[in-house]
Amino acid sequence: GAGVSQTPSNKVTEKGKYVELRCDPISGHTALYWYRQSLGQGPEFLIYFQGTGAADDSGLPNDRFFAVRPEGSVSTLKIQRTERGDSAMYLCASRLTGTANSPLHFGNGTRLTVT
Amino acid sequence: GNSVTQMEGPVTLSEEAFLTINCTYTATGYPSLFWYVQYPGEGLQLLLKATKADDKGSNKGFEATYRKETTSFHLEKGSVQVSDSAVYFCALSANFGNEKLTFGTGTRLTIIP
To answer: Using omega within 30 degrees of 0 as the cis cutoff, is the peptide bond preceding B10 cis?
Structure first.
């Protein structure tokens, strides 16, 4: 079956612009996570959804970052007034439930470059 | 806070060599520990995990043992293959209900035929 799908795979934008990154989780997965991976680093947690609600957004770096999951399936990560430091790989992951016993599936990521 | 310290790379080995990638952690409570692997051009995949002290996770010839006394989860393989070339990430989740992961910085492994 289909895995976690992220679009676009690459996004180049100018400093100050607004971007949206999309994540299509595996069908039926209630838990969805966003991570950010800078070059040479491990992924860093941004936000976790259980269903439609953001259960933990403690990893969002500032108020320029926002994410939604209005119908409990597709999620969109939104970045306002992008800065060059936002350049990174943005990863989405989903699992059937919010527990560690449920395997976590990652997408291939969206590489964001802010020029 | 929680953190994972991972052996820095890159690591280059010959085929059939023995592999160890060190990983130590800092966490409150009793975390679950994981190794994830990222093959070239692919997304992160779970390689193995251990959920309590002294558990051994294993998969594809790789093993790691959850050592609470040394707060370690070192990855080992007795005989590596060219197909093992990838980036390996050690990670933990603190089991506080949302299971978010804290990752190490990753170790790039290259196996030479």
So the answer is: yes
Signed CA dihedral, A76, A81, A84, A85: sign only: negative
Measuring CA to CA, how many Å separate A60 from each of A66, B31, B100?
8, 22, 13
The whole-angstrom separation of Cα B69 and Cα B47 is 23
What is the model's pLDDT at position A32?
Answer: 95
Radius of gyration of chain B (CA): 14
Peptide bond into A8 cis (omega under 30): yes
Q: Cα(B78)–Cα(A95) distance, rounded to whole angstroms?
A: 31
- Higher pLDDT: B9 or B83? It is B83
- Compute CA distances A90 → A2, A76, A85, whole Å: 19, 11, 13
Indicate yes or no: CB of B101 within 8 angstroms of CB of A98: no
pLDDT tens string A19-48: 999 999 999 999 999 999 999 899 999 999
Across the interface, do B100 and A59 touch by the CB < 8 Å criterion? yes
Residue A86 neighbours by CB under 8 Å, 6+ apart: A64, A79, A112, A114
Is B110 in the A-facing interface, judged by CB distances under 8 Å?
Answer: no
Q: What is the CA radius of gyration of chain A?
A: 13
Q: Which residues of A touch B91 (CB under 8 A)?
A: 42
Calculate the average pLDDT of chain A: 94
* Rounded CA separation B107/B113 (Å): 19
